[in-house]
Design a protein that fits this description.
- The chain is of the alpha+beta class and about 180 residues long.
- The protein has 2 domains: about 80 residues; about 70 residues, bsu07140 like domains (CRO Repressor, 2-Layer Sandwich), CATH 3.30.240.20.
- About 50% of the residues lie in helices and about 10% in strands.
- The chain has 6 helices and 4 strands.
- Strands 2-1-3-4 form a 4-stranded antiparallel sheet.
- Helix 1 runs parallel beside helix 3 and helix 3 packs across helix 4.
- The radius of gyration is 22 Å and the shape is elongated.
- Its main location: membrane.
Length: about 180
């Protein structure tokens, strides 16, 4: 029955670590800002996963609370520094972030872009269904965002002609 409960389990340490983790995450998020756990880039997502992994290590006592939270503080601090550098220096932004890529231009699937982005046509079609696209004529554009998400821009009906081109600003439109 040790796999359910063992008298040697550090239960009080786990509770204390959970409380400390909760408070520290709130403090760091308030200091660094909401960007701490936003998913603007792939590295933002990776940092979020890493922070979760570190918290897990702390709560299971395989890493000390101090060591774990220094690691979390360092990762979130680096996220803050990288975001400031991205904003200030365009070459640094280009180095860190991927440009969004156009996968569909209207109803036309852009197979070269799909291939370079390593996205399958079926994945795009699944996103079209998710976005409640009922007809290919409704599609204005499908974009693989720099976060790895796929955005579907579509009209409410095939008669709706209003679309602001600014929404595709910065999107790589190779064909």
């Amino acid at each position: 029955m040790d796999w359910i409960y063992s008298p040697t389990d550090p239960l009080l340490e786990t509770i204390a670590g959970s409380i400390i983790a909760f408070v520290l995450i709130i403090l760091l998020t308030r200091i660094i800002g909401l960007r701490s756990f936003a998913k603007f880039t792939v590295y933002d997502f990776a940092v979020t996963i890493a922070v979760g992994s570190i918290i897990s290590s702390v709560l299971t006592s395989s890493t000390s609370v101090v060591q774990g939270f220094i690691a979390i503080g360092a990762l979130l601090g680096l996220t803050y520094v990288f975001s400031a550098l991205q904003k200030k220096y365009k070459p640094f932004d280009n180095l860190i972030s991927n440009d969004p890529v156009l996968l569909m231009d209207g109803s036309k699937m852009l197979y070269d872009n799909l291939k370079s982005a390593k996205v399958q046509e079926g994945q795009v079609v699944a996103k079209l269904r998710e976005a409640n696209v009922l007809n290919y004529d409704q599609i204005v554009a499908v974009v693989l965002e720099s976060t790895g998400d796929i955005s579907v821009l579509h009209r409410a009906s095939s008669n709706d002609d209003h679309f602001e081109e600014r929404l595709l600003q910065g999107v790589v439109k190779r064909k």
